[in-house]
């Protein structure tokens, strides 16, 4: 009996999984069973979680269900790859080990059937948003993360909840242009990687853009 043809790779991002959105979680679990189980590689490109407070939060029932579902896929010979988003950048090796996935740094380049594809979450390319870029530079520092992760989990969750509130407010005042990737930053990724295709999420503006000969896929949110 021949095995059915398998998809080579699937790319998803921006699920923003959270307890208050159970239907998104159901859709994700359905996607894993109906689609991801039949692919060789699944790329999770950031903001899969609405927030991640640290790898000492693996056992929360909500997180444990998601980790268990990913682990089940990994155990059925789907290779899982994870890239940090601006919401879940505190995911670390503890999470990766539990879920059975490989952490990627951005930009990451994959070769799919001879096609060179660059992967980023997309937040680092929103360079007009100078306030966010400064925040990002701070929170991506190992020293800042070590200090933050040294706080009690409950305190970290309270701080994150406050940040999410501030982010929601900022989104109502920032312009449409500021919240998108810039052409210069996109070109920089193409030039740095030599890729002919770029896949990213973050902006929640799904589209296929042409940059001369090169293609840029923007993933949808969920
Ligand atoms: Mn994002």
Description:
- This protein is α/β, with parallel strands linked by helices and 222 residues long.
- The protein contains 7 helices and 9 strands; from the N terminus they run E-H-E-H-E-H-E-E-E-H-H-H-H-E-E-E.
- The chain has helices at residues 22-34, 61-75, 93-99, 130-139, 142-149, 153-173, 183-193; strands at 7-12, 39-44, 79-83, 102-104, 108-112, 115-119, 197-200, 207-211, 214-218.
- The strands form 2 sheets. The chain has a 5-stranded mixed sheet, covered by helices on one side. A 4-stranded parallel sheet has the order 1-2-3-4, covered by helices on one side.
- Helix 1 (22-34) runs parallel beside helix 2 (61-75).
- The mean pLDDT is 95.
- Manganese (II) ion is lined by residues 14, 46-47, 85-86, 121, 123, 202.
Can you give keywords for this protein?
binds manganese (II) ion, 4-stranded parallel β-sheet, 222 residues, alpha/beta
Topology:
Elements lengths: L6 E6 L9 H13 L4 E6 L16 H15 L3 E5 L9 H7 L2 E3 L3 E5 L2 E5 L10 H10 L2 H8 L3 H21 L9 H11 L3 E4 L6 E5 L2 E5 L4
Parallel strand pairs: 1-2, 2-3, 3-4, 6-7, 7-9
Antiparallel strand pairs: 5-6, 8-9
The protein binds manganese (II) ion.
Terminal Cα span = 37 Å
Radius of gyration: 18 Å
> Which distinct ligands sit in these coordinates?
manganese (II) ion
- Give the overall shape: globular
Oligomer: single chain
| Backbone structural class | alpha/beta
Short description:
The chain has 222 residues and is of the alpha/beta class.
């Amino acid at each position: 009996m021949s095995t059915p043809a398998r998809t080579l790779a699937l790319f998803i991002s921006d699920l923003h999984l959270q307890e208050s959105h159970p239907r998104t979680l159901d859709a994700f679990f359905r996607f894993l069973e109906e689609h991801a189980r039949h692919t060789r590689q699944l790329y999770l490109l950031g903001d899969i979680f609405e927030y991640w407070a640290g790898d000492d939060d693996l056992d929360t029932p909500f997180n444990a269900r998601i980790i268990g579902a990913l682990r089940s896929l990994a155990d059925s010979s789907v290779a899982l790859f994870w890239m940090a988003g601006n919401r879940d950048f505190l995911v670390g090796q503890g999470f990766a080990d539990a879920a059975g996935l490989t952490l990627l740094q951005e930009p990451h380049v994959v070769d799919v059937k001879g096609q060179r594809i660059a992967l980023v979450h997309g937040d680092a390319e929103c360079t007009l948003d100078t306030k966010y870029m400064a925040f990002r530079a701070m929170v991506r520092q190992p020293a800042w993360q070590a200090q933050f992760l040294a706080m009690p989990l409950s305190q970290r969750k309270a701080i994150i909840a406050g940040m999410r509130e501030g982010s929601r407010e900022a989104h109502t005042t920032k312009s449409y242009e500021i919240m998108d990737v810039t052409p210069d930053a996109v070109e920089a990724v193409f030039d740095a990687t030599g890729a002919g295709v770029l896949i990213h999420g973050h902006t929640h503006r799904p589209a296929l853009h042409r940059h001369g000969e090169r293609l840029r896929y923007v993933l949808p949110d969920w």
